[in-house]
Amino acid sequence: MKGQILQLATLLAAILLGLPRIPAAAADEQGQKVVKYAKFRVGNRIAWGVVEGDHVREISNAPFGSYTLTDRTHRLSDVTLLVPTRRRVKVLAVAGNYVSHLAGERPPAKHPEIFFKSPTCLIPTGAAVVIPPGTKEVHFEAELVIVIKKRAKNVTPEQARDVILGVTCGNDISARDWQENDIQWWRAKGSDTFGPIGPFVVSGLDYMNLTLQLRHNGVVKQKESTKNMVHNVYEIVSWISRHITLKPGDVIFTGTPGQTEAIKPGDVLEVELEGVGVLKNRVVKRGASRRKQAP
């Protein structure tokens, strides 16, 4: 009842103040409220907001804790979307988490196989993936990415539901020659710009039944449901939390389906995750101009 009164009051205020009419938040199949969060720059300010149609409404604080809706709204076309998490976070990833990606070369792992990417690999939608000198084969990898909401240590898969803020699109850019020949994957997977994520973080979706796809220069190259993950979102968070304390804003790439292909300067990559949106990045070589990474 209180929620209905609040919605009515918000609608009345919008009418009286002449604010844009914004559709109410949607709900997934389980009736959970679906909320789409954006981190963005408007003018000289950086803010978080809730996406409502083609607008974003600012919220009082980042969504990792409590917040309130404000009366400040902006058209999405008038803001610059940023990496939808905090700065200086851990970036983890899962290897071989779809049978279709393993292609019969090895059996699925008994537990999630985790590796690290660097925090400086993260870039937002619209920024450029930069191919560094020294590598001859760089591939795309479309992935669902988990964003952690609160501290998690030794949580069960059931408890993991409460520590996840939501999910976003990700592209685990990978230098295959370095991946094959180096002992560690620190540069193969963690080079600067090798971790595009965005455009939004969305909570309340059925994370284990979303269509994930990648378009390479407009052609669909990967398409699969997240229900085909070997280890699901909650199992991944639980497993990592046994060994590493997860903190608000940490992100986890959850593996890529199917087969990947090489990319080159001039290419355009689009990762689309059902209910989230499209993460779009172009590919350049080092030395070419690109949008400066934002906080």
Explained architecture:
The protein is mainly beta. The protein has a domain at 91-285: Fumarylacetoacetase-like, C-terminal domain (Fumarylacetoacetate hydrolase, domain 2), CATH 3.90.850. 14% of the residues lie in helices and 36% in strands. The protein contains five helices and 19 strands. It has helices at residues 2-17, 99-102, 157-160, 176-181, 233-243, and strands spanning 35-42, 45-52, 55-59, 69-75, 80-81, 91-95, 113-117, 122-123, 128-131, 138-139, 142-148, 164-171, 174-175, 195-203, 211-216, 219-225, 251-253, 268-273, 277-285. The strands form three sheets. Strands 1, 2, 3, 4, 5, 6, 7, 8, 11, 12, 14 and 17 form a twelve-stranded mixed beta sheet that branches. A five-stranded mixed beta sheet has the order 9-19-18-15-16, with no helix packed on it. A hairpin with a 3-residue loop joins strand 18 and strand 19 (277-285). The longest helix has 16 residues, at 2-17. The termini are far apart. The model is unreliable at 1-25 (pLDDT under 50).
